[in-house]
Structures are given as structure tokens and as C-alpha cells.
Amino acid sequence: MRLDKFLKVSRLIKRRPVAKEVADKGRIKVNGKLAKSSTDVKFNDLIEIRFGNKIVEVRVAELKEFTRKEDADKMYEMISETRIQAEEE
């Protein structure tokens, strides 16, 4: 499954165009490598997403084409959520 679609279906990122933009700006790594929106995501892959001042790490638990809102968080396992200090001048 494509990375941008996984992020949308799992609701880690609400909309696919936003997921594509975040990936294309180099803010997402899959298994430690920079990933594009078209990167193939497989079961057990480790995804690291940088949102502004935090980094979220998740492991892929399930791959589904569609899922209900209540079941979306079962598609991944949260590994860590780290806040990054804003660089002070």
C-alpha cells in the first residue's frame, strides 16, 4: 500500500493530499530511510513522521483499503511521541 494512502486510511494524517505534501517535504521516514508519498508500506514497517514540533513513531500493524473511524488506530502501534524544542535564537 502507498504511504500516503496508509496515512489517510489509518487517520494519522486526515487527508491524502496533506500526507503527500508532508512526505514530499522529507518529513517522513520508513524504516529509517526518507520516504516519498509513493513508497510502499508493508506489515511491521516503522514509520517516523515529523509534525512541526513533535516526532511520532508508529509500527504498521494492519493494511486495509478502508476502515471505520473507530478501527483506524488498530492499523498501527504507537512506538513513541517526542516533542522537539524549538530552536532558540
Automatic annotation (TrEMBL):
Residues 1-64 form the RNA-binding S4 domain. The keyword Transferase does not apply. GO terms for biological process: rescue of stalled ribosome. InterPro entries: RqcP, S4_RNA-bd, S4_RNA-bd_sf. It comes from the Bacteria. Belongs to the RqcP family. This is RQC P-site tRNA stabilizing factor. It comes from Lactococcus taiwanensis. The gene is rqcP.
